[in-house]
Design brief:
CATH topology of the largest domain: Transferase(Phosphotransferase), domain 1
Number of strands: 10
Strand content: 15-25%
Largest sheet: 5 strands, antiparallel
Number of domains: 2
Structural class: alpha+beta
CATH class of the largest domain: Mainly Alpha
Low-confidence stretches: none
Distance between the termini: 50 Å
């Protein structure tokens, strides 16, 4: 059953569902454009931490104005339910693109995509917004499923749902997608910063150029966590013989266990990518 948001939106279909919400495709009858409507799940609308995160996500999208970050059209509270209305990107996410179109993404195509992705994340890292502690915004869930590729080839970063400010004290829950989480993300006693996203970007590069998950033979959550804490990502050449060997050094540095040993900014990572 579709939400009732009045006469402005004509709902078409459900297009996604996750741990925090449901995403619908709708037509904005006022503008004539298709939009995505993300509804916070009812059980989370009574959870103060989830509610704060959802409202924060709306404010973050409102203040992040970048061509490679999906834009917010509206934030609606109705009948104790909460909705984000965002631009609709016709295409597929990067995970689907790898699975259905390319497999391992060729070097030059990867470099072109990574330039847009890293510049967008860097923009957010350096954008001060009017929320306490948000002298820059950390994404904290960078993964192929959260990167959209439009039919014309444009990149759009989505899902700032678990993001936090660069100077914000983290919450009391471990949030994120395990395969793309930095070691410090697993420990709620440790603060997070830009280098946490840089680790995820390194893992993303690995998946893009190999077409495979970052760790080989991980069948359980405990194995994933052990690899994150104690082992390097599987060598790219073990997963795809045709990989460009130059990516390995960049991936290794971006995914160092100690944040001090990683690239210290997206600009540093971008420079390394451009110089390939």
């Amino acid at each position: 059953m579709f939400p009732d948001l009045g006469s402005q939106y004509k709902f078409i279909k459900e297009i996604g569902r996750g741990g925090s919400g449901i995403v619908y495709l709708a037509l904005d009858l006022y503008s004539g454009f298709l939009v995505c409507v993300k509804k916070l799940l009812e059980e989370h609308s009574k959870n103060e931490e989830f509610l704060i995160k959802f409202k924060s996500e709306a404010n973050i999208y409102l203040m992040l104005d970048h061509p490679n970050i999906v834009s917010l059209k509206d934030f609606i509270i109705k009948n104790n339910s909460f909705y984000l209305v965002q631009e609709y990107v016709e295409g597929q996410n990067l995970e689907e693109y790898i699975q259905n179109v390319t497999g391992p993404i060729p070097t030059e195509v990867s470099i072109g995509m990574l330039k847009d992705i890293i510049k967008a994340i860097d923009y957010a890292h350096n954008k001060s917004i009017a929320i306490s502690g948000h002298q820059g915004v950390l994404h904290l869930d960078i993964k192929p499923a959260n990167i959209l590729i439009s039919k014309s080839g444009n990149i759009k970063i989505i899902d700032y749902g678990i993001s936090q400010g660069n100077n914000q004290k983290r919450g009391n829950q471990v949030m994120g997608t395990p395969l793309f989480m930095a070691p410090e993300q697993l420990d709620i006693s440790r603060q997070l910063d830009r280098r946490t996203d840089i680790y995820a970007l390194g893992t993303l590069i690995h998946v893009m150029v190999t077409g495979n998950k970052p760790f080989k033979n991980c069948k359980t959550k405990d194995q994933v966590l052990d690899n994150i804490l104690n082992h390097q990502l599987t060598r790219t050449s073990e997963l795809y013989a045709g990989v460009d060997f130059r990516f390995q050094k960049i991936i290794d540095k971006a995914t160092e266990k100690n944040p001090e040993d990683r690239y210290q900014s997206c600009q540093e990572l971008l420079t390394a990518i451009v110089q390939l």
